[in-house]
Amino acid sequence: MLRSVKEDLQASTLRAVSGLLGKLRYFAALRQQDGSYQHWGLSRVHGEEAAQKALAEAHRRLVSIILQTPLRKLVQDLDESCTPNQSSMDFLEGLQNQESESLPKDPSAGYRRHLSSVLRALSALTKIRP
């Protein structure tokens, strides 16, 4: 059965990535300096234009969900999103270092500040967590 590019992205790719923040890190890793995404499989199966559009839409939707999620739930999500040998602090530092790649292309200034403040708040909460 042939799936749409959006279905393929959700079912085959994003389902395999744990946590909202883990998915955000995944999108940051796919982003290129010009703002495009590099995903060989989606591009090969569905074409470059369809893959770029689906990735950008999914990325925007994910960031919107993260920005609407209460911090206490994001703290829990952080544990799910980290790789087995990675600390929460290291994970967050990596996201903060990739802040521009973590955002979808052409975000508003408010969007950028909001995500930055969420990541800083998570970092502060992680430092005081037992």
Describe this structure in words.
The chain has 130 residues and is an all-alpha fold. It has one domain (5-128). The chain is built from 8 helices and no strands. The chain has helices at 5-13, 20-30, 40-46, 48-68, 71-81, 88-97, 99-102, 109-128. The mean pLDDT is 90.
Search tags:
130 residues; mainly alpha; 8 helices; 0% strand
State the gist of this model.
With about 130 residues, the chain is an all-alpha fold. It is built from eight helices and no strands.
What is the first-to-last residue Cα distance? 48 Å
Number of strands: 0
Strand content: under 5%
Specify the overall morphology: globular
Computed CA radius of gyration, to the nearest angstrom: 15 Å
Oligomer: single chain
Measured as a percent range, the helix fraction is: over 70%
| Most strands sheet | none
> How many distinct folded domains?
1
Report the order of strands and helices: HHHHHHHH
Question: What would you call the structural class?
Answer: mainly alpha
Secondary-structure map:
Blueprint: H1 5-13, H2 20-30, H3 40-46, H4 48-68, H5 71-81, H6 88-97, H7 99-102, H8 109-128
